[in-house]
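Quick question, first post here. What does this chain look like in 3D?
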Amino acid sequence: MTPFVDSHCHLDFPELKAQLPGVLAEMEKQGVGWALCAGVTLERFPAMLDIVREDWRLFAAVGVHPDTEALAQEPDIETLVTLAQDPKVVAIGETGLDYFRLKGDLEWQRERFRTHIRAARACGKPLIIHTRAAAVDTLRILEEEGANEVGGVFHCFTETHEVAQRALELGFYISFSGIVTFKNAAALKEVAKAVPLDRLLIETDAPYLAPVPHRGKTNQPAWVRHVAEEIARLREQPLEEIAQATTNNFFNLFKASKQ
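> Answer (accepted):
Ran it through. Tokens below.
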């Protein structure tokens, strides 16, 4: 069986960091070969990178999450590009727009997003996109900033088929999390059936969004297998096909080393 890849998690978050040896052991037990840890602030990035450097199966992305309003260190292009030179860093992100959690004048959020896109273009690494209640502006800014030159992934996808199609046209991949296993995610399940196999990724977003049958628990990379199983069921394809495609897609997008 081809090993799975968790294309987005947060192993540096307290819920997982406190039990990291067990989390990594369970990954191996469940056939999950690799995981990518996404950045959320520059302050937390060094500690996350230390975790990633200790295990050949782990990769990192550097970025600042869009819903963090008051920061000690706001990202700039030079800083992001410099941090992205580390061989363990394979992407810029997570970045994007989130109009669900924050209201009011969010121009600062859009400017932060543009900074990440410009940094990605400068260092030639793909983007990890977070978008919530902001699809129109997310797609517009990606187009305006020429993000198609580097591509990337819309992580934890929860948008419509039309948004997925626009993202695909920009050269992006679509990643599904444990949400696709939820009973009330009928529309998302349809999107998962429609995304081309060669543009599909899977993730946990651990420690959040644990898939069925672990819903409500602290999520972990090992459980990305359940996401793959649900997508295989929805698409009526063998699990091995989903594993092989999503793993190949991950390494094609992020240009990461398998060893």
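The first helix runs from residue 14 to 17.
The CA atoms of residues 208 and 219 lie 5 Å apart.
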